[in-house]
């Protein structure tokens, strides 16, 4: 009986697993042909967490931009991104809050927005998220820099997917 239930549960979960893998592949395919993009970051949290010198949008942006440049990926300036809706950009949102016990739970979302047309809405042009990754964690208040490192790792994950989708753009080619 238990074996039958396990087999039934396994058969039911296979389509869900296949769908998830299909979505990951679709996201990765959406990176094909990207030549350049901008980067912006936003941090939401209490003043104790996001108002100090350790965790700031400026630090997060600079770490991400350095990582992109080191990976030989062309970064577009903020002015260019803001001047046109046709410029793709990476958007990182960090949400962190301080608990009474001094712990800081946080979440990080990194999304790539690209220009799209909505055929069902008179070909309206807008931006849409075509690739994303995220994580959650918890640190102590004296370890906020860990959030910076986690954010950097998500940018590294983006770079890996970017080069999987664009193998001819890999360094040295």
Question: If you had to describe this structure to a student in words, what would you say it looks like?
Answer:
- It is a single chain.
- The longest helix is centred in the N-terminal third of the chain and has 28 residues, at 2-29.
- The relative contact order is 0.17.
- The N and C termini lie far apart (57 Å).
- β3 and β4 (103-118) form a beta hairpin.
- The chain has a 5-stranded mixed beta sheet with strand order 2-1-3-4-5.
- It is globular and about 45 Å long.
- It has 173 residues and is of the alpha/beta class.
- It is built from 5 helices and 5 strands; from the N terminus they run αβααβαβββα.
- It has a single domain, classed as Double Stranded RNA Binding Domain (2-Layer Sandwich).
- The model has no long low-confidence stretch (mean pLDDT 83).
Based on the model shown, name its key terms:
5 helices; 5 strands; 173 residues; 31% strand; alpha/beta; Double Stranded RNA Binding Domain; single chain; 5-stranded mixed β-sheet
Radius of gyration: 19 Å
Widest sheet, order of strands: 2-1-3-4-5
Portion in strands: 25-35%
**Which second-level CATH architecture applies?**
2-Layer Sandwich
Helix and strand run: HEHHEHEEEH
Residue windows where pLDDT falls under 50 for at least 5 positions: none
Text of the CATH class: Alpha Beta
Q: What is the tally of beta strands?
A: 5
Shape: globular
Count structural domains. Answer: 1
Q: Helices and strands in order, then pairings?
A:
Layout: H1 2-29, E1 36-45, H2 47-50, H3 57-70, E2 74-75, H4 78-83, E3 89-96, E4 103-118, E5 124-140, H5 145-165
Parallel strand pairs: 1-2, 1-3
Antiparallel strand pairs: 3-4, 4-5
Helix pairs in contact: 3-5
């Amino acid at each position: 009986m238990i074996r039958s239930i396990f087999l039934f549960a396994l058969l039911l979960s296979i389509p869900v697993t296949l769908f998830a893998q299909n979505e990951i592949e679709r996201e990765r395919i959406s990176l094909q042909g990207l030549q350049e993009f901008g980067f912006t970051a936003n941090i939401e949290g209490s003043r104790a967490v996001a108002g100090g010198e350790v965790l700031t949008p400026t630090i997060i942006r600079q770490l991400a931009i350095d990582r992109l440049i080191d990976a030989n990926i062309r970064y577009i300036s903020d002015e260019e991104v803001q001047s046109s809706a046709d410029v793709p950009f990476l958007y990182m949102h960090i949400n962190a809050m301080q608990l009474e016990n001094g712990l800081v739970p946080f979440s990080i979302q990194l999304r790539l927005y690209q220009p799209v047309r909505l055929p069902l809405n008179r070909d309206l042009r807008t931006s849409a998220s075509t690739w994303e990754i995220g994580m959650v964690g918890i640190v102590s208040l004296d370890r906020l820099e860990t959030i910076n490192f986690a954010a950097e790792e998500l940018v590294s994950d983006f770079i890996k997917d970017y080069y999987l989708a664009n193998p001819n753009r890999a360094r040295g080619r």
